[in-house]
Amino acid sequence: MIARAGAGPLRHLVVLRHAKSAWPDGVADHERPLAPRGRRDAPAAGRALAEADLLPDLAVCSTALRARQTWELASGQWGTAPPVRFAGQVYAADVPELRDVVQAVPAGVDTLLLVGHNPGLEELVLDLAGDGLDNALEEVRLKFPTSAIAVLAWRGTDWRDLTPGTALLTGVTVPRGKKK
User: Fold this and answer.
1) pLDDT digits (tens, 9 = 90+) for 81-129
2) Measured between alpha carbons, how far is 101 from 64 in angstroms, rounded to an integer?
3) What is the pLDDT of residues 1-46, one digit of tens each?
4) What letter does residue 51 receive in the DSSP assignment?
5) 72-111: string of b/e by CB count within 10 Å (b at 16+)?
6) What are the tens digits of pLDDT across the range 150-168?
7) Phi, psi of 168 (to 5 degrees)
8) Three-state DSSP class for 73?
9) Is residue 54 exposed (0-12), middle (13-18) or buried (19+ Cβ within 10 Å)?
10) Cβ atoms 170, 2 nearer than 8 A
11) Of 90, 120, 155, 167, which is the most buried if we count CB atoms within 10 A?
12) Domain chopping of the chain, boundaries
């Protein structure tokens, strides 16, 4: 169902927008923490990835506090968290910068999780997806809210092969945690 033209193994780029953040007075944007809803939704995102069998071989996460907290709460739902790289260039990045981050991933990584921010993540998904299953592309175009997960599948021998229009957007979900 995911098979696409191209050589190399099937790879997945899993894009996770950070969970809902708070807006405390006097706190710089980079240091904004998760809001209570974000603290509920981030673990739900981790559970959704585990249930979909999309645990990453590597995660690349923005250095912003809300992204780091999302990563910690999501990956805390797994038995063992994969290696993570905290990358300042993911914070406030545009599509070319995000594509550079992804294309620098080692060839041995089959599933990459990218944790970051909008509008860059939404635009990256739309840039890389040449097609989508069901109405996945339309969902991303309409809204890519906090805690949203987009899964892109593609074939290639190296992450540098992931270029505009070469991936299939196989799904989009927005996990939400339950209030206690």
Assistant:
1) 899 999 999 999 999 999 999 999 999 999 999 999 999 999 999 999 9
2) 16
3) 333 345 678 999 999 999 999 999 999 999 999 999 999 999 999 9
4) H
5) bbbbebeeebeebebbeebbebebeebbebbeebeeebeb
6) 999 999 999 999 999 999 9
7) -110, 125
8) helix
9) middle
10) yes
11) 167
12) 12-152+159-173
Q: Which two tokens stand for residue 68?
A: 């780091």
Q: Is 131 left (phi over 0), alpha (psi -120 to 50) or beta?
A: beta
Residue type, 63: T
| CA–CA distances in Å: residue 82 to residues 9, 55, 57, 147, 180 | 20, 8, 6, 19, 29
Is-cis flag, bond preceding 96, omega within 30? Answer: no
Tell me the CATH number for domain 12-152+159-173.
Answer: 3.40.50.1240
Nearest to 127 by CA among 141, 148, 110: 141
Q: Which residue has the tokens 């070319």?
A: 96
